[in-house]
Amino acid sequence: MRSILRAIVCLAVLLAGAAHAATIKVLCDGPLAPALPAIGDAFRKQSGHQVEFAFAPSPVIRKRIADGETADVIIIQPDFIAELAQNGKVPAGDHPAFGRVGIGLAARADAAPRDTRTPEALKQVLLRADTIVFNNVASGNYFAKVLERLGIAEEVKAKIVRTNPAEMFEAIVRGTGDDIAAGTITLIRADKRLRLIGAPPAELQSYLSYAAVPMVGAQNPRVANDFIRFLWTPAAKAQLAAAGVE
User: Fold this and answer.
1) pLDDT tens across 163-204, in order?
2) Are 183 and 104 in contact (CB under 8 A)?
3) Where do the H-state alpha helices sit in 22-156?
4) pLDDT band for position 20 (cuts 50, 70, 90)
5) Between helices 36-47 and 221-230, what is the axis angle to 10°?
6) What is the reported pLDDT for 149?
7) Average pLDDT, integer, range 88-110
C-alpha cells in the first residue's frame, strides 16, 4: 500500500510540474544563433521551461516589434534596446551586455589561413582578394570603415559585394577565386562550408554587444527574467565561449 501511495505522490508531483511548465519566446540577433539553442536546452533541463528562439538581425527585430510582434525576451544590441525602451516596448533602465561578438574574415573551407595580425598584413590580404563580401547592417558598416582606415576603400571598391546578412556567405561558397567575407566570428565558425582565416588586429577590431531584456506585457515574465539571469551563469558563459562569444 505504501509503495502505491508513493507512486501516486510522485505522479502528482510530476503532473503539477508539467502543469506549471511554460514556453517562452525569445527574439534574438542572428550572430548568437550558434550558442543560444544549447543554452535554452540547459535552461529547460534546470527549470522545466521551454525556450523557443526566433533569430533575425537587430534592425529586423526592431521593425517586427514596431509592427506589433510580441515576445517574452529580446536579445539585441543595447542601442536598439534603448530605442525600444523609449517606445515603451521594454522596461527602461540598465540592461548590461552579457556577451560580445567580434568580426572575422572567412573564405571557403579549403582556403589557407592568412596573416591578418597587423594593419599592413590585413591590407595586403584584402588587396589580393578577388571579391570582398560584407553585409549591410552593423558589422558590415563597421568593416567599410576599416577599409577607409586602411586607405584602400577606393582601391577595392570594384570588388566589394554588399548583401543582406542571410545571403552573405553564399557569395563566398559559390565563388571560385580568392573570395573573402567579413562577418561575425560566431557565424563563420558555425558554417562548415567556411574557414575562419583570420581577424582584424586589435586596433581595427570591433564588437557587437548583446543584452537581454524582458518585453513589456510578456506572457511569462517570471520565466523570462529567470532565463535572462541564466545567461549570466557559468554554464551559459561556457556555451557562449564555445561558440565564439566573449
Assistant:
1) 988 888 998 999 888 999 999 999 999 999 999 999 999 999
2) yes
3) 36-47, 58-66, 78-86, 119-128, 138-150
4) confident
5) 120
6) 96
7) 94
CA distance 53 to 24: 9
Q: In terms of DSSP H, where are the helices of 130-204?
A: 138-150, 168-174, 185-190
pTM (two decimals):
0.84
Please, which residues bridge with residue 51 across strands?
24
- Judged on CB neighbours under 10 Å (0-12, 13-18, 19+), 18 is exposed
Query: 17 in helix, strand or coil?
Result: helix
**Cα diameter, the chain:** 85
Nearest to 211 by CA among 228, 225, 191: 228
The answer on pLDDT for 31 being more than 50 is: yes
Helices 234-242 and 36-47, axial angle in degrees (round to 10): 160
- How confident is residue 18, by pLDDT bands cut at 50, 70 and 90? very low
Residue 44 neighbours by CB distance under 10 Å: 15
Is residue 134 helix, strand or coil? strand
Of 79, 39, 68, 33, nearest to 54 (Cα)?
Answer: 33
| CB-based burial, 207-218: b 16+ in 10 Å, e otherwise | bbebbbbbbeeb
Other beta carbons within 10 angstroms of residue 232's beta carbon come to 12
Distance CA 235, CA 237 (A): 5
Q: In terms of C-beta density within 10 A (0-12 exposed, 13-18 middle, 19 or more buried), how is residue 88 classed? A: exposed
193-205: burial string, b at 16+ Cβ within 10 Å, e else: ebbbbbbbeeebe
